[in-house]
Amino acid sequence: MRDKYCGAVDSNDIGKQILLSGWVFRRRDHGGLIFIDLRDITGIVQIVFSPEISPDAHSMAGELKQEFVIQIKGRVERRPEGTENPNIPTGMLEILVYSLKILNTSRALPFQLDEDEPNEAIKLRYRYLDMRRPEVQKVFITRSRVYKAVRDYLTSDGFNEFETPMLTKSTPEGARDFIVPSRLNPGMFYALPQSPQLFKQILMIAGFDRYFQIVRCFRDEDLRADRQPEFTQIDIEMSFVDVEDILRMGEGLVKEVYRTVKGHPWDMPFPRMSYDEAMERYGTDKPDLRFELPIIELTDIFANTEFGVFKKALAEKGTVKCIVLKGKTLSRKDLDVSVDTAKQMGAEGLIWIRNENNAFQSPIAKYLKEEEKSMMSQRLGLQDGDIVFIMTGNRQKVNELMGRFRLYIGERFDLIDKNLYKFLWVVDFPLFEYSEEQKRYVARHHPFTASKTDIRGFNGDYESLKSKAYDLVLNGVEIGGGSIRIHRKEDQFEMFKLLNIGEQEAQEKFGFLLEALEMGAPPHGGIAFGFDRLLMMLMGLDSIRDVIPFPKTQKGVCLLTDAPSKVAQKQLNELKIRLASDK
């Protein structure tokens, strides 16, 4: 139904007859002549209807409206001098139409495709119209190209692509599962996979050496801009490897994705930072390095302080930490707003010190010793106009609050260069973390993560154990993570024991894996990259909904299909399910 795509018409076609099909994007009626921008997936080309060339086609063109689907025959000509459009590849050409066929009409659209972006609810309700917009189509064409780049890169490095089950077993120690009832096994349920974790380990035990999958994953959790109930991962596992092998491979893959999206290579190695350093210096395990503003330790300076707030915190084995905003000379109103913001974040207070004319201006200045002021000035390299923001208290809480406050300061005072890309490997994560909700220690990564030290001699200090886990961070967002796995059954049982998972529960939940570990499981490890999140970041978009063809809202609703929805009572009866509301 066409000789070429619209965006592919070029100077070699001048003087030739051509057959094109597409959508009416814009229509301009200049009296005798009617100009149409004809659009398809490749771009637009201008077509011209003239009563002198074809009265019938010109007459029919009067009926054309936006998004009518048409087929035309015409002759390619160079545009008259002065009418060229240098902003599009076909802008030097036009097609003089002598035959028009209307393939389909369109009713009035809920929004215009060539105007400003519609609000999100309208956009998702009419996603097929939103996706006709050229700028949106570019996103998904890029997504397709990245799929290919990932496959090409990994297969060339000896990886085999597998599919793993969508209907699997519900397991603990993760996010909430989506549950699927089994009609053939009444009262029994599948879970949709949060990741293919156990299956990819089984593939390593099966001897396939290198596995990958671009896979759909499902997590029933509260949503936000970078989270969806179903999402895509680049899932990878390798045998006979340690941390360095995984990081080297993962870094190469992400650089290839970057090159595909941005059109030029990333030549620098990704820096590395331990989890402990990230928390102490930036207050988060995913620091945004597009701006400095580190969190700086002051505790030792105030070891003998007489200032009551600091003295109390240090007596309780707390800490004193600060960040320094250089050269901004903030007003008292700015400082008060900053204090209020810190309190809204959960801080008990925020102390500020303004360095002006080599003197401290602050409500607490009179309580500080000259020696303390001098040591602060020297350590912080204070200059005129600098502002010091100080928090004190429990170290973990101060780190976390200062990390959030640092991001607030970075945004508020335009310290973040939005055009920068800052990758960072964070390594040496804790093996466990304490769950306030469960009142016990849980696996920081997952219960199959290997420890850096032998846990069989565990002394009860959960917080001292480090794991062979790692995350890749981009501009303050985690885009990938993984670990070296436990590959011996006795070590896996020790891990379960520390997580209060008894032998019976372990066999019930993970029996097939434990059995496999007894049959010559090789050392192995892997990583998974958030495909949607990585694309969102590299394409400068605000939400992963922008890179998912048919996303859900923040309440997990598909506005296009009205899912989730009720099902017929007959289906519930077949599944032996009775709703609580029917009791």
What do you see in this structure?
It is a single chain. A hairpin with a 2-residue loop joins strand 1 and strand 2 (33-40). The mean pLDDT is 94. The protein folds into 3 domains: 6-104, OB fold (Dihydrolipoamide Acetyltransferase, E2P) (Beta Barrel), CATH 2.40.50; 157-273 and 424-543, Bira Bifunctional Protein, Domain 2 (BirA Bifunctional Protein, domain 2, 2-Layer Sandwich); 291-416, 2-Layer Sandwich (Gyrase A, domain 2). Helix content is 28%, strand content 24%. It contains 15 helices and 22 strands. The chain has helices at residues 55-61, 120-125, 127-130, 134-156, 197-205, 243-262, 275-282, 308-315, 332-344, 370-380, 395-412, 489-498, 503-517, 531-538, 569-574, and strands at residues 17-30, 33-40, 43-49, 69-78, 93-104, 160-161, 179-181, 189-191, 210-218, 230-239, 272-274, 296-297, 319-325, 351-356, 359-361, 387-393, 423-427, 432-435, 440-443, 469-474, 477-484, 524-530. The strands form 5 sheets. The protein has an 8-stranded mixed beta sheet with strand order 6-9-10-22-21-20-17-11, with helices on both faces. Strands 1-2-3-5-4 form a 5-stranded mixed barrel.
